[in-house]
Amino acid sequence: MRYISLTPEERQLMLQAIGVEKTEDLFESIPVGVRLGRPVDLPEPLSESSLLADFKAMARKNACGDDFAYFLGAGAYHHFIPSVIDTLVSRSEYFTAYTPYQPEVSQGTLQAIFEYQTLIAQLTGMEVANASLYDGASALAEAVMMASRVTRRTRVLVPEALHPNYRKVLGTYTGNHLSVTSVPADSAGSMDPETVDALLDDRTAAVVVQSPNFFGVVEEMEELGRLAHRRRALLVAVTTEALSLGLLKPPGEMGADIVAGEGQSLGLPLSFGGPYLGLFATRDRYKRQMPGRLVGQTVDRKDRRGFVLTLSTREQHIRREKATSNICTNQGLCALAVSIFLSTLGKTGIRELAEQNLKKAHYLRRRLAGRLVFPGPVFNEMVLRVDDPESLNQELYREGIIGGLPLGTWFPSRRDQMLVCVTDQNTRRQIDRFIRVLQQSRVTV
Question: Would the pLDDT of 288 be above 80?
Fold first, then answer.
């Protein structure tokens, strides 16, 4: 079937029906000087099937799809996503997953959020988790401001190996009222406890530690926590790769007071950058300083289980000057997808998926040991030394490979280094092809 154009007579009848004489009268409110003044350069109308075929042909020009192997991470990860997630989140009950403005009549939404909170608390080893934030970067910024409220201090220690985008968002949030001190990475690519101890003082509200950090290195969080607590500061643990929590010791068991991070790798597709969701969990004693909202479980007068919006310190509500943040919503649909992902895989499945990432990454690490920049332990990312990362990526692209992230953009002294990621979705054949292109390229160490 093709779309049928109106005849002049039919068009005139429609214009008369809405009370105008000619089509141009519909645009009287638009100044003549900004109107196009000529027909739009569009092709002839197509049938729906032909139009879809054209869009698919256009989409094939993108560097994505099953034909490409991905070795790019840096905060957005290509992981396995069970088909059941799309099936369930597409049900009509969840089409308007949003903040429950009338909580008592939103029992389904509240239960979904409650289950999400429970799963995130278990994953992070913390006592309480909120109903999600916008993304990992804003979650970190909220965590730092929360630490300042709790301690009534205004100085924060932040690692050099913190994700650069997170650092920028943190600076935007805190630039006018908090002081941020950068902790340089040591030769292993991590935070040196002695350096942190020397920088700590009685004005320090928190020590921020990302693990695995931006260089892919797993940090020694327990010692950093002991040092922070000795000076009555809080330890804020950050993760951009939440799947690592399926294998590494939870931050809550290593002394973290607040855990913030990105949940994209737990069942959310890459989607060209979003929407994602921010993870946020803390100790029970700090819950009233936590941003966002908290759903709780209760019973009604007939002793039936129900759910309530226990804490909701939002700026739209009364006493808004007492609000802990300006977080206006929760990422309801994204949080639901994460809950289904974690429930579907379970503890065993999450661990197995994390182990696949670890083993495949270490296979690449062993094969390219001579190019490694940092010797520290890693999960699924590592920094490799190459002369010209941009040229190498062009060679990889011609072989159907999306290469790593050149670090020179954020770290001028690391222009000869590339951050590479290997996930469960990378086959051994793809890894071997990446190694072959790297070894045969014009780029030399």
Answer: yes
Top pLDDT among 177 and 418 is at 418
B/e letters for 149-168, b = 16+ CB within 10 Å, e = fewer, are: ebbebebbbbbbbbbbbbbe
What is the pTM for the complete model shown? 0.85
- Surface-to-core class of residue 298, CB atoms within 10 Å of its CB (0-12 exposed, 13-18 middle, 19+ buried): exposed
| SS3 of residue 142 by DSSP | helix
Select from 223, 262, 267 the least CA-distant residue to 239: 262
Q: What are phi and psi of 189, to 5 degrees?
A: 85, 15
Amino acid symbol at 384: L
pLDDT at 315 over 60: no
Burial of residue 322 (number of CB atoms within 10 Å: 0-12, 13-18, 19+): exposed
- Write down the number of H helices and E strands in the chain: 11, 14
Task: Report pLDDT digits (tens) over 365-412.
Answer: 999 999 999 999 999 999 999 989 999 999 999 999 999 999 999 999
What pLDDT was estimated at residue 445? Answer: 44
> By C-alpha distance, which of 372, 443, 431, 383 is closest to 408?
383
Domains of the chain are 69-81+346-440 (3.90.1150.10), 83-342 (3.40.640.10)
| DSSP reduced 3-state for 299 | strand
Cα–Cα distance measured from residue 234 to residue 224, given in angstroms and rounded to the nearest whole number: 10
Cα–Cα separations (whole angstroms), residue 390 to 146, 195, 402, 408, 426: 40, 34, 12, 10, 22
Please give the torsion angle defined by the CA atoms of residues 283, 286, 288 and 294, in that order, rounded to the nearest 10 degrees.
Answer: -10
Whether 385 and 414 have beta carbons less than 8 Å apart is answered as no
Question: Cβ neighbours of residue 45 under 8 Å, at least 6 residues apart?
Answer: 2, 3, 5
How far apart (Å, rounded) are the C-alpha atoms in residues 426 and 79?
A: 9
CA 101: distance to chain centroid? 26
The pair of three-digit structure tokens given for residue 373, joined into one six-digit string: 């920049």
Q: Which residues of 116-140 are buried (b: 16+ CB within 10 A; e: fewer)?
A: bbbbbbbbbbbebbbbbbbbbbbbb
